[in-house]
Fold:
Amino acid sequence: MQYPDPVLLPSHRTLLASGPDFRNMDSNVFQNQFTCSMCMNYFIDPVTIGCGHSFCMPCLCICWEGAQHPPRCPVCREISHQTNFKTNIILRTQVFLARRARPYQFLSSAEQMCEIHLKTKNFFCEVIKDFLCLLCCKSKEHVAHRHCSIDWIAEEYRQELLKQMRFVWEKTQENQRNRNREIRKIRTWEGYVTLRRKMIRTEYQKVCQLLYKEEKHHLERIEKESREILQQLKESEDSMDLKGKLLRGMYEELKEMCHKPDMELLRHFENILKRSESVQLHMPQPVDSQLSSWPITGLIDRLNRSQVYISLDNEIVTGRIPLFENLRCLLFGADHPEVANNPTRSKYFFAWGTQSFTSGQHYWEVYVGNCWNWVIGFCNDSWTMRNDMVVDSEGIFLLFCVKEDNGCSLFTSSPLLPQYVERPLGYVGVFLDYECGVVSFVNVANSSLICSSLSCSFSSPLKPFLCSGLP
Structure:
């Protein structure tokens, strides 16, 4: 749910000329028209949803934050399909005029009166940050200062607080998205490390037993590194949880300050503004949960014995096969709501092998360079015939490199799993052992294993597959 863009109020004179007489309004009518039914205070940043009910935007944000989708009106429970609202300018103007009609209803008469001139303090001096009567404003001490009516400057400060609330809310949502990612990593981390150790062990079983010490050292380093990263992930999740509570607390505090009487708001405005800006600093960032990739002696030499020449049929497709969008929706849908609404405009190079494999061992290499989005591996004929090419289909054994925010992530299919290793920047090797049910991907540059799909079940001919994004 997004905040509406900030909108400036009309001029002070226009408000005075166009507004109704709120001083003679019945109190019940006043209460119903200009107060939020959720917080029972004057509307702040009011929005009107599809059913016609109005609420403070902050109240609606908090109410709908963890609600079901689509959300419902808090009053009549009608489903609201719209979540991006515009500020109700007419209602906000009326609330401003209503505040002007009852500006001091919560203050004592002593606080309103100037002790020197015995006049009502109607003005706020922005130099000394204090309340003055008209005669004080004209005195030699204050005549050169800038003075504003209390109700008008209070409204300006409220809008500044609302601006801060927008920033805090955005940071809150950003922090929650990052925390969700860390939680997902924690849930799968130990299983992933166990699987990776099994993949590494399987590779070393294929080479000379003289490499036993290297295998042991490799596995020990993975174990040590994985414990360190898991600890960092847990600390990161705890830090984001604490940051989320601080941001939510500040958001609530800003909301409460918006409801304060004008004089109290002006007294505490600068202090709460500084604290709001401070709590938004030092946002915890997700951990770079990437295991080191050490070379495996003899890996590339052994694979090269099975190297084959791959001839390809290819075509350039523009946005007709939403391969990467499908993958992003499966992996990041909750944290990237814009994925479904922003189909790619990029061009992709798709290619299939002209030959199919039904037995034996086959190895080929693909140059990926600095490309962000690419897919390589093997697939069956039925998948290449599909129009949608969804990534959770059966019969595909692929390695995906997908751009995510300012970085990229590696994933494998069958099943769909993240690979927490370094992204290859040169050649990627692809190996198929049809009889043993193994598909492996290697980083040719440093002779390291990216991942292996162990104990696969091949029931149909497999074709090499390649897809890469074009500039």
Residues 6-18, 339-344 have pLDDT under 50 and may be disordered. The chain has twelve helices and 16 strands.
